[in-house]
Structures are given as C-alpha cells and as structure tokens.
Design a protein that fits this description.
Rossmann fold, alpha/beta, seven-stranded parallel sheet, single chain, 16 strands
Length: 419
C-alpha cells in the first residue's frame, strides 16, 4: 500500500484523511492496516514517532462506521499515561469528524463524573489507563462484556510501569472472541507472555530497529561537571534554534530547573507526576502551540508527549535504564524530520553512557564543551566547600587546618561571599 486512497474505506473516513493531509502511510501503517481491516490480530513493534496511532485508529473507525450505533463499549484502547490517552482521543476525533462516533477518556486526574457521563451517554470507544479502568471495573461502573476489540498501545511501557496485574484483570472481563492489537516501541520479548496468552495467531510486524533511536536523530554528548549543566543548557538555548524538551530525573529537580529558566526569561513549562491534569494539559498544549519554547519533564512524559516538531531533546539527567534513552530521544526526529539529542553526563557517569551505547548499539558524538561561566554553585548536586578560619581566629591562617562543610545549590544559584 502506497497511498491511503488504495484502501476500501467509507467516504467520510476518506474525506477526513484527505482533509488532514494524510496521503502516504508510514511503514507500520502500510503493514498493519490491511490485516486489521480483515479482523486479524496484530502484534507490531516499531519506534516511537512512526504513526502507530493511525495504524489502529483507521481500521477501528472503519469497523464502527459499518455497524449500527449503540451504547455498548465496542472498542477499548489502553495506554500507559494520561497524556497519551488524551492524544489518542484527539486523533480519533480528528479522523471521525462528522461520523457520530462517541469516545470517552478514562484516566486519573480528570473528573470521574464527566468520564462516567461520557460512558453512559453512549461511548463506543473507551481510551483508558489501566489503573483507573480497573477501579471502575471493581466498582462495577463499566461493562466490557460487549467489547470486541482491544488495543494495547505502548504495551512494553505499561509493563515497565507495573500494570501487568491490572492488564490481566481487564483482559479477563473481555469476551474470549475478540480482535487484539498490540503495539510496542521496544523489542517484543518484553511482552512475549502477553502475546502468548492473549493474542490469537497474530500478524507480526517489525518496522526498523526498535532497540535504537531513529536514524534521523543526531546523538550528541557533553561530559560536563554537574555544577555546569545549567550553564550548558543556557548555552544551547542561546545557540540552537527550535523547541527543547528537557528531561530531569526527579519531580523536585524538574520544578527547580523550570524556575531558574523562568528567571532567565525563557518561556518554560513543566510536567511531572505531581502536577494536576489541568496543569499538564496546559503545559503540553502551550508547548505544542509555541507558547513555551522549553518543556521540562520527568520520565512520565517520555511516552506521553506526541509533538511532531520538537527540535531538541536534552538528557539533563541520564535515564535510569538504557531503554529510557530510546523513549526520551523518540520525542524528536518524528514524522521524518531531523532532530537532535543532547546528553549531559558527569565524568563519573562515563561508564553509564558506555552502557547505553553498548545495550542500544549506538554511538554518541562527544562534543567539546563551549566556554562556560566559572562554576560557583552546583546544579542539583552536593559538594564539599573548603573554608579558611574566620577573621580574628587565634590560629595563624597559614597553620590552621581547613574546615569543610557540605551544602547543596540549585540551578543558576550563585554563592555570595559571606560565610
């Protein structure tokens, strides 16, 4: 399949594809859509940014258009994060415009009353995170007995996040005879037991090398002292064009980094697990629309952000696991565009970078540090500061042992001369 026009789709869906300028399918779309239209189970492994959402959305919308409307939940789509669920819902609304297909988003952090109202009003498609949906099932607020299709999107990420018990409980509620679509960004063996247990005679699709970043992403690395990372980030912001997605290890670190960027007059937003859903939506929409040039995030956003034009991803802190590098870097270089990844590694983290290269089969390009201000404070670090005896001490300065104390400094903070 070279063009969407080759598919035998209803006129409304064809028109929506044309209106949104979807003309040529990506490889995963070209391989997955035909068997899905035939009702086959599919297990697809492909890198992030390859168009997996459209690969399952088109067959689902076409199937719904061919049957009478009802208030039964016919389609269930599970995703690991709230942000991804919301974006899948937006994609469905875009493709099903004018087709009277109702959807409901079931996630934590949004109004439960609104979600249940959307379901009772006749949602045929429910897009959910496993935890919230499991809660509704336990309280008998949702009936999945008529659900004939399930999509496990980013299945490997759901397993990484500990959702396996919830997935098993949900799948137990579905009819035995159903269509199952399983999409994963990393190697299939991590979800092999899901495939063996819950997928029937699937068509298996592998697009590209899913264990390494896309070829159109340039991988750069700076070996930099922890206390100079903030100045290096500011240097990149001054000398590189485009938007920046910056990954910090902790929620506190992300908040602190965002505050210091704001003080530097940069338009910045922040996303992490402690932000309310409205704050997360506002941050993501502002980043998409260009109101914010910088989005600081923890790994909650590694797969929850689907923005086509992110120019730079910065690993301000290294990810916990090599696979996290794939998911972070996959936020740039999407839809065929070029992107850049910048990894900030302290000298003591040299072996961690080598491990990422070895596990993923990649090679980062080390860059020479640009001239940076003399570090005075530390970024998210703890250091030992040497002091001299106070003025007026009875001991001669030359013979006095140096006293030490430990202190932490925030991004961009400058220590005054006072002791």
């Amino acid at each position: 399949m070279n063009h969407f026009t080759e598919l035998n789709l209803c006129s409304a869906l064809r028109n929506n594809l044309a209106k949104n300028e979807f003309v040529t399918p990506t490889p995963v779309q070209a391989q997955a859509i035909p068997p899905l239209l035939e009702g086959r189970d599919v297990v697809a492994t492909a890198q992030t940014g390859t168009g997996k959402t459209l690969a399952f959305a088109i067959p689902i919308i076409e199937a719904l258009a061919a049957v009478p409307r009802s208030k039964v939940i016919k389609i269930l789509i599970l995703s690991p994060t709230r942000e991804l669920a919301i974006q899948i819902d937006a994609a469905f609304k875009q493709l099903a415009q004018g087709m009277r297909i109702r959807t409901a988003v079931v996630v934590g952090g949004l109004s439960e009353a609104r979600q249940l109202h959307d379901i009772k009003a006749g949602a045929e498609v429910v897009i959910a995170t496993p935890g919230r949906l499991c809660d509704y099932l336990q309280r008998r607020l949702v009936d999945l007995s008529g659900t004939g299709t399930i999509v496990l999107d980013e299945a490997d990420r759901m397993l990484d996040m500990g959702f396996l018990p919830s997935l098993r409980a949900i799948l137990k509620e579905l009819p035995a005879k159903r269509q199952t679509m399983l999409f994963s960004a990393t190697i299939e063996r991590s979800v092999a037991h899901l495939v063996d247990t819950y997928v029937h005679n699937p068509v298996r699709i592998t697009v590209g090398t899913a264990t390494k970043p896309a070829d159109q992403v340039d991988l750069f690395c700076y070996e930099v002292e922890q206390r100079s990372k903030f100045d290096l980030l500011v240097h990149l912001l001054k000398h590189e064009a485009g938007s920046f997605l910056v990954f910090a290890r902790t929620k506190h670190g992300a908040d602190r980094l965002a505050k210091f960027l704001e003080r530097g007059k940069y338009k910045v937003a922040c996303i992490h697990g402690d932000r309310s859903q409205s704050q997360r939506i506002e941050a993501l929409e502002g980043f998409k629309d260009g109101a914010y040039r910088v989005l600081v995030a923890t790994d909650v956003a590694a797969r929850g952000i689907h923005v086509d034009d992110i120019a730079h991803v910065v690993n301000y802190d290294l990810p916990q696991e090599p696979e996290g590098f794939i998911h972070r870097v996959g936020r740039t270089g999407r839809a065929g565009a070029r992107g850049a990844s910048w990894t900030f590694a302290a000298p003591l983290e040299r072996s961690d970078v080598r491990n990422i290269e070895r596990v993923l089969g990649i090679k980062v390009q080390y860059r020479e540090l640009p001239p940076l201000p003399q570090p005075i404070g530390l970024v998210s670090d703890t250091t030992t500061v040497r002091t001299i005896p106070s003025i007026g001490s009875s001991q001669p300065a030359g013979n006095a042992p140096a006293r030490t104390f430990t202190r932490s400094f925030s991004p961009g903070r400058r220590r005054s001369g006072r002791r």
